[in-house]
Design brief:
Layout: E1 6-8, H1 18-28, E2 32-38, H2 50-59, E3 63-69, H3 77-83, E4 87-91, H4 99-108, E5 111-116, E6 134-138, H5 154-163, E7 169-173, H6 181-187, E8 191-194, H7 196-199, H8 204-215
The protein binds D-xylitol-5-phosphate (DX5) and zinc ion.
Zinc ion binds near residues 9 and 193.
Protein name: Ribulose-phosphate 3-epimerase
GO cellular component, one term: cytoplasm
GO molecular function: D-ribulose-phosphate 3-epimerase activity; metal ion binding
C-alpha cells in the first residue's frame, strides 16, 4: 500500500490540553491530523468548528484533514480553508454530484475529498474518482468516536482500490484499531483514521508504531 499514513482523529483528544495532545501526536510520528466537524443535522451530534481548526493550525504544521459531516458544506468551505484546512472532505449523501464542491475546494487551494457512509453504495462515488484527491470510506455511521468497525465496508475499499486512479488516497474512518487496521490495509486502504484506537492509549508513540507495523507491506 505504499507509504503508511495514519491520521489521528482529534475527536478522541483531551481538549483541555489540545496543544499538548498535538505535540504528542507529532512526536509519535503523525504527519496528518483528522478533524471531525459535525453539525447536529447531517449527524446526530455536535463537535467543534472553525475556532478550533484555527487553534490547531496555530499549534502545528501537520497536514490538516478536515472531515465535514455537515449538511451544507458549500456555506462553510471557504472559511474552513481560511482557518487552515489542507484537505476538505464532503459527504456524497449531501452532494450527489460533488463536482461543484470539489471546484470550490480546489479554488481555495485545498485538496478535495468525498466520503460515503456504510449504507451508501460505492457506485455513488465512482463517477468522481478522477475529480478529487481522497475518498473517505466510513466504517461506522458518522457522529461518534469509539464505535465498532463494520467489516461489510471492506468490499467497497477493494472495489475502490481496483478503480482508483494513481495518487487517489483511499482513507478508512471509524473503528480502526489494532484488530481492524490490517484488514483495511489488505483491502487497499492507504490512509487510516484512528481516534480511540490511538488516543485511547497512554503511550501514543508505542501505539502509533504498532499500528504502522500492521499496515506495512
Ligand atoms: C466518526 C468520525 C471519526 C471518529 C473516529 O463520526 O468521522 O473520524 O473520530 O473515531 P474512532 O477511531 O474512535 O472510531
Ligand atoms: Zn472522521
Amino acid at each position: 500500500a505504499g507509504h503508511v499514513m495514519i491520521g489521528p482523529s482529534l475527536l478522541a483528544a483531551d481538549f483541555r490540553y489540545l496543544a499538548r495532545e498535538i505535540e504528542r501526536l507529532e512526536a509519535a510520528g503523525a504527519r496528518f491530523l483528522h478533524l471531525d466537524i459535525m453539525d447536529g443535522h447531517f449527524v446526530p451530534n455536535l463537535s467543534f468548528g472553525i475556532p478550533i481548526v484555527q487553534a490547531v493550525r496555530k499549534a502545528t504544521r501537520l497536514i490538516l484533514d478536515v472531515h465535514l459531516m455537515i449538511s451544507n458544506p458549500e456555506a462553510h468551505i471557504e472559511r474552513f480553508r481560511e482557518a487552515g484546512a489542507d484537505y476538505l472532505t464532503v459527504h456524497i449523501e449531501v452532494a450527489p454530484d460533488p463536482r461543484p464542491l470539489f471546484e470550490m475546494i480546489h479554488r481555495t487551494g485545498a485538496c478535495a475529498g468525498v466520503s460515503l457512509n456504510p449504507p451508501t453504495p460505492v457506485e455513488a462515488v465512482i463517477p468522481y474518482l478522477n475529480d478529487c484527491e481522497l475518498v473517505l470510506v466510513m466504517s461506522v455511521m458518522p457522529g461518534f468516536g469509539g464505535q465498532s468497525f463494520r467489516p461489510e465496508v471492506l468490499p467497497k475499499i477493494r472495489r475502490l482500490r481496483q478503480l482508483a486512479p494513481d495518487g487517489l488516497m483511499i482513507s478508512v474512518d471509524g473503528g480502526v484499531n489494532g484488530q481492524t487496521i490490517g484488514q483495511c490495509a489488505e483491502a487497499g486502504a492507504t490512509m487510516f483514521i484512528v481516534g480511540t484506537g490511538l488516543l485511547g492509549h497512554d503511550n501514543y508513540s508505542q501505539r502509533y508504531r504498532e499500528l504502522a507495523a500492521l499496515v506495512k507491506d
